[in-house]
Amino acid sequence: MSERRQFGDGKRINMPQNEKTSTLLRQWEMMRMLTVSRYDSKQDGRWDKASEITAKLNDAGYAVSVRTVQRDLKELSEIFPIQLNDKNARDYGWRWTKGANLNIPGMSVSEALAMRLVEMHLKQLLPTAMLDGLQGVFGLAKIKLDELERHNNNHSKDWLDKVRVVQPAQPLLPPRVNQDIQSDIYRAVLENRQLSASYNAAESKETKEYVLHPLGIIMRGSASYLVASAWDYSDVRLYALHRFSKVTILDNAAKRPSGFNLDKAIAGGLADFAYQGEPIQLEIRCEEWVAAYLAETPLSTDQTAKQEADGWIRLTATVNDTWQLRWWLMGQGAGIEVCAPATLRAEIKAALVDATSLYNKNY
Question: How far out from the chain centre does Cα 51 lie?
């Protein structure tokens, strides 16, 4: 199938179906990128320039010129409620009309809720270029839910007021991350490019220079980490985003260690700050309240429990030998006794002896 298109000289040529599809997808993306004019005056001055939209489209993989974007927007404004600000002849501005009915893109209530939750909780994980491209969608989602609230015909918006994400451990304030550095790191991950970086490790007072091969991003509690290998080494480590003082994106492609898989690396204890990297057979004795908690949220799929004569419960489970495991065991206080492995028992015992000595001091 093809569409016939006429040019100024009166001649007609066939427009291939794949070109037609590409044009429609591009125009769809353009409409999603446009800012929604708000009812409040603070947002009234925001217009999307054709040059800005062109840059975003090129980042999204659409090779397009400013002139093409201006032409498309002019044509779309004849069909959709899109405003034009032509005060700057060099670079026109565009946006959705204030109060316009924006059901045209077809966003459902559930989609609007999902996008609002993404905006609330996952913004720090999204690359800047991707986040900028979602601003139009975030705006549509808010207007969709506001419209439902005004008409009082749907209680779905109440979901946002009734759902919260809380940390399972002691809440900690997030570390400060340089936004430009974060943006460059995310871009390097997205484009599979190497990074030249200045990094200050937690155990070191000196800033060191690295050439990193980005492999992924992990958000762990209040902190985010770059998963990467360094130079020509194959071992994969975590680099806290807030400890980078400078990064430069290199032209060279990032090298991926043979057989690396992010999910397998996490399952192996990477995000829990792995010690040995090998699973261990953990054996503990615990009070009934700890056992009841672990019965509902087991340590592993092979966890077993056995009642003992003194009322305590003996549990065994295959777990990763990690820093996080030690923190959890220490956090249970007198409610848990580590029985095996022997090396882990000795380590926990020594830590508790040191802690006891601190509390035996008189101030």
Answer: 27
